[in-house]
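Archive transcription. Copying these from loose printouts into the bound notebook so they stop getting lost. Printout 1 of 2:
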Amino acid sequence: MAALVRISFVGLLAAAAGSGCLLLPVPRQTPYSDTMPVQAMPQQEVEELPPADEIPGLSSDEKAVYEVYRQNNRAVVNITSVSVRYNWFLQPVPQEGTGSGSIIDADGHVLTNYHVIKGAERLFVTLFDGSNYQAEVIGADPENDLAVIRINPDGRELASIRFGTSGKLVVGQKAIALGNPFGLERTLTTGVVSGLRRPLSTPEGFIIRELIQTDAAINPGNSGGPLLNLRGEMIGINTMILAPAGGNIGIGFAVPVDTAKRVIPDLLEYGKVQRGWIDIQPVPIYPALAQRASLPVSRGILVSQVKRGSTADQAGVRGGDTENYVVVGGNTIYLGGDIILSIGGRPVSTLMDYLGALENTKPGDTVVLEILRNGSKTTLNITLSERPRSLGW
């Protein structure tokens, strides 16, 4: 069975871990494990590439692809993450993993995947000429597997990637991937956009619903690198592949650049994405719970409790009765509260549906809740609060 694997490269001989499934039928990608040190090359002189028109024998298509590489390869970086694990004798063992990233401005901000930098105690960025810089995490968005890190260019002029748009992509459009697969720096592969709006789940339990599918060859180490159109504009951020054993079989996925453009300002300002929230204890309903608690539906989000004085409370959302409850897995679930059926017109039946319906909202936004109360459907307008750092309240 094929597994979805994240494509950060952890060691030259890394192998894919086992596959799994979080929320059927949405597959879950499997990270690579086992590491070997990855050495940055010493700084070197890199020859300036000539324009395509100065190279004889190239077709018009070859010229277009070459120009994308010429204009963007210096803005693609290699990211090395360093963390510490402990062996059976409790001795610290440094672990290294690598991925890719795109320089997005002259200040040294680099866009990459969250899973490339997750758990890192130190981060290093290697530029096209082998020069190495220590980096700091500026902001992270696990829900979209995106992160922004920064190096201090110390007055050095940096090349950067231009943002395009992903909202008007069509299947069959040319797609060009840049990155550092298996440590091979600034590698280019070409293909097409194979599909749009693909939903896939992350190991953190979040579902990215709008992924771009491409057959441009993507391999371990490409994570965080740009997916580009023929104008040399970023249309996505390469993030994972579908593979039977960790190798490329022509099914890769990228986070749409429009998602990145939406969350980057928050990552730069707050270090996280400011998302709207409903101050309740949400409980996903599943058939066994519905039967045990005699609920009128087998799918939806049960409101166990409402935070007193919150915007949800002010909007009239009702929680359960503290005298009527069940205990499931050590958690107390209060019954009799509202059952949320949809948020802003999007049906919700799982916690991931619930989070997904709020993913593109901001504190202060107003959304319409469709709820089931005492057997009857009704709607409530609710002003969203700010999402807490830990889910729940």
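Printout 2 of 2:
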Amino acid sequence: MAGKSHPGVRALTNKCEHMRRVRDLCGPPPLRSMAAGFPALLRIIVDQQVSTHAGAAIWRKLEKHLNGEINPERVLKAGEEGLRSAGFSRPKTRYALALSDAIIAGELDLDELARMDDASAQAELIKIKGIGRWTADVYLMFSLGRPDIMPSGDLALQVGAQLLLGLDERPSIPELDEIAERWRPYRSTAAVMLWHYYRHAKPGKGGLPGQK
């Protein structure tokens, strides 16, 4: 991955002073991607509303429990007891089983999903219990490589935008959607840069040079 960067970084930093500030203060954002498919979507569900460390710990337990074979059939065979023993909460256990059922029943075709436009793919994903806009958006960004997605329900993105733009309050989902219009057609890269900025600027990290 050496020498590569997220698409649109140059365009964003050329036209937006805020994105330029992220680059100048924090450096280029790290590249991140996940191979498309069931394991990636399940991992995003695991990572919902937990820390990176906690999500990784649960995932390691699941891999051990399933002997490294993470697919819908193995998840269904593990059942509620197996998933709970791997650290899944009760809601996420239901979500994992619902996703596995949907794929086995042909209600969700991940290969076909990759051929859909953004809105259609999002609509298909959120039909599945436990998959909301955030999960769908993150899958589209990091597994399908869609360049113009903004997961506006993400708390870190909202706080990052508040800090970067000097807003009095954390923007709501509709407000962040509106703010992000300025970053089309590279909203996915803008989101990655906001996450990058948040990690450097969030409370407890000491802030950034010149940050109040």
